[in-house]
Each structure stands twice: as C-alpha cells, then as structure tokens.
Design a protein that fits this description.
Strand order of the largest sheet: 3-2-1-4-11-10-5-6-9-7-8
Oligomer: single chain
Strand content: 15-25%
Radius of gyration: 19 Å
CATH topology of the domain at 124-278: Isopropylmalate Dehydrogenase
CATH superfamily of the domain at 124-278: Isopropylmalate Dehydrogenase
Low-confidence stretches: 1-10
Helix content: 25-40%
Order of helices and strands: HEHEHEHEHEEHEHEHHEHEEH
C-alpha cells in the first residue's frame, strides 16, 4: 500500500482555504511517474481537484498497478506519448473542458511550447510567467518569487507583465485588503547604467508611480539582503516600505530566480508551490524532481486562483498575447 502522505511542510493556510472552494477540474499532463500520479490522487482525495489523466493509458495503468494506486474513479484520456498529452491537454483547457493544467512527468518545454502557441488558445494579452509561492520559518510570512521557470532574460516590458501577474495573484487570493509589497532585486541597491537590472528596477518603480503597474508598492533596485532584512537595509541607510517586508521578489532573470528559489527549498527547507500565470487557465508547474507535497501545494494555489477568477477578485486577461 502507498505510504501515508505527510503534508506538514506545506503552508497550511493554502490547503485549508483551498479545501473550502469548489474542486477544480484539472488535466494531469502525462502522469507517468509515481510522484505525478500520486500527487493527482492525493489532491483529489484532499478535495482540491477533479483530475483528468492525459497520457498513455497502458503506462499510467502499469504505474498505478505497480504502486498500488487506485485510479478507477478518474477519467483517463489515452494518447500515445508525452507530446500528444501536452497537445490534448492544452486543447481541453482552450475549450474549457478543464479549468487548469498540471505538469506530470514531461519536460517543462514540452508542455509550455504547446501552451504558448499563438493558435493554441491559452495565450492572452499578458506575457506568460512563472511564480513560486514559498513559506520559510526564517521569514515572517509567505512570499513569492518570480520568474524562475519561463522567461529567460526578460526585458523591461516583460518584467512589467511578470510583476503584474504576480501582483494580481497575490491580491486575488489574499484574505486581507493589505497592498502587497514588491522587491525588485539586483546585486546592488543603487542604479548603475552598466547593470541593466538596476535600470529596469528604477523604471518599474516609476511605472508603478504612474499607474502602469497597479495594485502594489514597488521598490528597487534592492540587493537580496536589503529586501529580506530590515536590519540590513537600516545598516546601509536604505529607507524603504518594502525592505524586510516584501511579499513578492522580482528577480532579474530566470537563472537568478531559479537558483534563489531552489536554494531556499533545498537548503533552507522552504515549502513551495509553483504555477504559471498569464494564460487563460492556471498551469501547475513544478520540477519533475518535486516531491508530492510541493505538487499538492501547487494544486491548492491553482484552486484559489480559479476561485478568485470565478468571484472577480482576479482579472482575466484577453486576446492573443506575447
């Protein structure tokens, strides 16, 4: 029999709140590993999702039998391989047959290349981006890191969309009316023309002043120590509403975001959930090496996002996108 799942590391309020919402119909894309299949089953048992398993039927059934997992109560859409699973799942999302997608045991590029196609039906006027939701005992509240998985070297306008996606999510799923705070990260806290991330940070803050970015307080450039620690900011003479109290950390590029998030998860033992924003539906996106707890936390985040959209707390973006 499968081992009893321990979800103690997941930020409890996400799961507790998500379980009070309607289940989200979710296409599990190529669930051909124990972790991917078990996560779908546990998320269903926990009242989070109604899974639709999309992948090679024989392979999925073989894994279920080997791991003693009962999938008889779930719909299974048979396709020959992982690429076909990505194509089919995106089609199902575009036609509103499912409300969310969840990455199984396929490469991120394989799923996202289908999701971002101009004729695929999931693109919007907003650039697609990724966000990690994290909780760490060394920080006083849950926080978000973006972008750690989709946009490799975003320019200023891409960063505008990336940060707005994260702001909309945080505002939409929040139980409080507080305005989120965004730390725009760089290696330093001063502006250097030769360091593009510092120039972008200054521009993003001015864009927020001019309402080109809405719903949050931005400050940057901030080095990570200044952003995470008010004491570090004080020592350097930085006066900031964001320093030491950020809700969202906007990283300069994917490499920085990915390394920061994985360092916190693997060395700092932070609990994490990952999701793609800016598409017509949430795309639950975790590493193939992610544990089952992380996948379930990501499902909970998607459920809260779908509920926020249903209740007009989070805007839909429309039209063909970037």
């Amino acid at each position: 029999m499968p081992q009893q799942l321990d979800v103690s590391r997941i930020e409890k309020h996400l799961l507790e709140r998500a379980r009070t919402k309607p289940r989200t119909t979710t296409a599990i894309v190529h669930p051909c590993s124990r972790g991917a299949l078990l996560a779908a089953i546990e998320a269903a048992r926990g009242g989070l999702i109604e899974p639709v398993l999309v992948g090679p039927q024989s392979k999925i059934q073989a894994i279920a039998m080997e791991q003693e997992l009962d999938i008889s109560g779930y719909r299974l859409v048979d396709v020959p391989h992982s690429h076909a699973a990505a194509v089919k799942a995106v089609q199902m999302a575009a036609s509103s047959e499912v409300e969310a997608l969840m990455k199984g045991s396929l490469h991120t590029d394989e799923l996202m290349s289908e999701a971002v196609k101009h004729d695929g039906g999931l693109r919007t006027e907003r650039r697609i981006s990724h966000v990690f939701a994290l909780a760490d005992e060394n920080y006083h509240k849950p926080f978000f890191i973006t972008d750690a998985a989709v946009n490799i070297t975003p320019d200023l306008l891409a960063k505008k969309d990336i940060v707005q996606n994260a702001i909309d999510l945080v505002v939409g799923i929040s139980e409080q009316s507080t305005i989120p705070k965004v730390a725009v990260l760089s290696a330093v806290e001063t502006i250097h023309p030769a360091m593009q991330s510092t120039v972008d940070a200054a521009c993003l803050c001015k864009m927020a002043d001019r309402q080109q970015i809405t719903g949050a307080i931005l400050d940057g450039p901030l080095a990570y120590d200044n952003a995470i620690s008010m004491e570090a900011a004080d020592i350097k003479g930085i006066r900031s509403q964001v320093a030491g109290d950020a809700d969202i950390f906007l990283t300069p590029d994917l490499e920085a975001g990915n390394m920061l998030a994985k360092q916190l998860i693997l060395l700092g033992k932070a609990s994490a959930a990952g999701m793609v924003l800016g598409a017509r539906v949430p795309i639950i996106l975790t590493s193939r090496a992610a544990d089952v707890e992380s996948r379930i936390g990501s499902c909970a985040l998607a459920v809260l996002m779908v509920d926020a959209r249903r209740n007009n707390r989070m805007p839909f973006t429309k039209g063909a996108g970037k």
